[in-house]
Design a protein that fits this description.
Mean pLDDT: 85
CATH superfamily of the largest domain: Efflux pump adaptor protein, beta barrel domain
Low-confidence stretches: none
Strand content: 15-25%
Largest sheet: 6 strands, antiparallel, barrel
CATH architecture of the largest domain: Beta Barrel
Strand order of the largest sheet: 1-12-16-14-13-17
CATH class of the largest domain: Mainly Beta
Structural class: alpha+beta
Radius of gyration: 47 Å
Shape: rod-shaped
Distance between the termini: 86 Å
Length: 362
């Protein structure tokens, strides 16, 4: 009985193994791809990795950095907004610089007022006072001269009529009165001549120095309002209100590096595609007049024709490998820029990676 049970279990195992082998040997059909992978549309073509960027006459996107450090006070734009040259983008706290500018402005205005005062001399009121002092000195001189004349006459008639000391005192009083009159007249002439030309020139230089300091401070104050360097579209805003920024940019807590405050794209809807052609494939690259290319958008079946724009005539390291700009790595590439009108049925954004095939045939 025991042997029969073992034989039955062995037979069932053999049958189950055969069934399992048959079931697992059946090949299932492959799932269709979510999108058609990139393929070479040309009989003779080379592949290049591309990146979408905004349409610029030169360079890539516009990285906007502040020229002064400070705390972000207000952000006046939003991502995706179109801006024009000179539009304010971000306000940085300028309270200290504004107070300094106002102080220099007040100093310059005070120097200007003093310069006007020097140029307006002599003041008529001061001339009237000096003229009155001259007349008073003349009156004193006449009084002392009359007294002296009387004493001299008396002394001549009788030497004992007045003392020699009284006569000498009258002579000295007359001399002092003459000197005072001369001083009063010169003081009047000096006042009438106005400010000294050297004082005016010195004050002019002080005013010019303070005015230039004020203008310099005003120019620095304007830097606290970050403005658009040209027409474009706001692609990225990195700092938030309250963040500290510097000429090195804004600190990014994720990458722990410095990023530009804003990134502006081109003003038009057209986009560029920057392709990196391996240096080994450069001999096969056609002339600019015969350049044709097609782009495949990753994640979709879209294939779009590209229009040649220009070539950056320098072969540089492909820094995506090591992120070291100065490292002489083996892979070196030539940037080739194409233009593409943004299609309505395909979403394209600057920074998106695409596959590009460039025709090498006639």
């Amino acid at each position: 009985m025991r042997y029969k049970l073992l034989f039955s279990l062995a037979l069932l195992g053999i049958i189950a193994g055969c069934v399992a082998g048959y079931v697992f040997s059946i090949e299932k059909p492959a799932e269709p791809p979510v999108f058609t992978p990139a393929s070479n549309p040309y009989a003779q073509g080379i592949y290049a990795e591309g990146i979408v960027e905004s349409d610029q006459s030169s360079g890539e996107n516009i990285n906007v950095y502040p020229e002064v450090p400070g705390t972000v006070k207000q952000i006046l734009v939003t991502e995706g907004q179109s801006v024009h040259r000179g539009d304010p983008l971000v306000l940085i706290d300028d309270s200290v610089q504004r107070a300094t500018t106002e102080q220099l402005q007040s100093q310059a205005e005070a120097a200007a007022s003093l310069l006007d005062e020097l140029k307006a001399q002599p003041r008529q009121e001061n001339l009237d006072v000096a003229e009155a002092q001259v007349k008073a000195a003349q009156a004193v001189l006449k009084t002392t001269d009359d007294a002296l004349e009387k004493q001299q006459t008396a002394y001549a008639m009788n030497t004992r009529a007045i003392s020699k000391d009284a006569l000498d005192s009258a002579i000295n009083a007359s001399a002092v009165a003459k000197a005072n009159l001369a001083v009063a007249k010169r003081q009047y002439d000096l006042l009438k001549a106005g400010a000294w030309i050297y004082d005016i020139k010195n004050q002019e230089r002080q005013y010019n120095a303070l005015q230039k300091s004020y203008l310099s401070s005003s120019a620095l104050l304007s830097k606290y309002t970050l403005r658009a360097p040209g027409d474009g579209t706001v692609l990225t805003i990195n700092p938030a209100v309250g963040s500290f920024v510097s000429p090195q940019g804004s600190y990014d807590s994720y990458t722990q590096g410095m990023l530009p405050m804003l990134i502006l794209g081109g003003p038009r809807m057209a986009l560029n595609v920057r392709c990196y052609v391996d240096e080994i494939l450069l001999p096969r690259l056609p002339a600019a007049s015969r350049m044709k290319a097609q782009m495949s958008v990753r994640g979709s079946s879209a294939k779009l024709n590209l229009e040649f724009v220009r070539t950056q005539p320098i072969v540089s390291p492909k820094i995506e490998l090591s992120n070291q700009r100065n490292e002489r790595v083996d892979v070196r590439v030539l940037p080739v820029i194409f233009r593409i009108e943004k299609p309505d049925n395909v979403n394209l954004y600057p920074g998106e990676l695409v596959d590009v095939y460039i025709s090498t045939g006639d």
